[in-house]
Design goal:
Blueprint (H helix, E strand, L loop, with lengths): L1 H6 L1 E4 L5 H11 L5 H10 L5 E5 L2 E11 L2 E9 L8 H15 L4 E6 L4 H6 L3 E11 L13 E3 L4 H13 L4 H10 L5 E5 L2 E11 L2 E9 L2 H13 L8 E6 L3 H9 L3 E12 L10 E3 L7
Helix pairs in contact: 2-3, 6-7
Amino acid sequence: MNAVREAVSVRAWTESDVEYVFQSVARERWGHTRRDVERCWCLEPHGCFLAELESEPVGHVSTICYGKLGWIGLLIVNPEKRGKGIGTTLIQKAVDYLEQAGAETIKLEAEETAVPLYRSLGFKEEFDSLRFSGRPNRLEGDVVGDGIAQMQDEDIEGLADLDSMCFGCVRSRVLRRLFEDDRRHCFVAKRGQRLSGYIMCREIQNAFWVGPSICENSILSGKLLKACISTVKDDNAQLRFGFPSLNGTMSNLMRMNEFAFTGKSIRMSYGKGEHRGFPERVYGIAGPEKG
């Protein structure tokens, strides 16, 4: 194993590596599109890394830095090269990059089988991150009005205070990129001129990913979900959700709308362990790769 690790070189992705990473992610059936992978690279081009062995790619990882908070995602090693320390090398490279970029706390979402690896590198469990999916139920009545409106360009900066309070750090550039990539499925909840919640949704492979979404309460979340569902024209489409287990009202909302529990990942943290935010108000994560 040590001989393989010593022979592995790590470099930053280039645009030409996006296709390899996409094919790797598709093999794992995580649902990401090529556009999702490209977005990760565009958001942090110097923080996405590729492992090579004898000039051939054997694994990859992505990062994104939100100032004092860093995030790690898209860690995959080619199946035939696993168990040789390549994943450890990539994680250490990602941690080093984020710390040099100023991150004091680093987070990720780990599959259960990978938790021992992350523990060995100093990460600690925070909470479960639940996954639900199902077909949308068409609900009666208006989907906009009563404080719910289609998201507009000028709303993005207004989301910053609410989002950063609940997420734990400012991520306006990520929200703006997600909105610009597919604004059809994005809605806000307003009380007067004050934003009290939002929801975003994007098309992934054979489904729609609902999130990020942050709300002050479950009533608003239900209204935003209804508005989001109304924009998905295919009644056979699958909607997929990820959210903190600490948000018990979201689990109830999932079951009320007949979405099924499909699994979980583990939110883990390295470093100071700060920037917790309020996961109880997080009704949808942007994705395991960026929080």
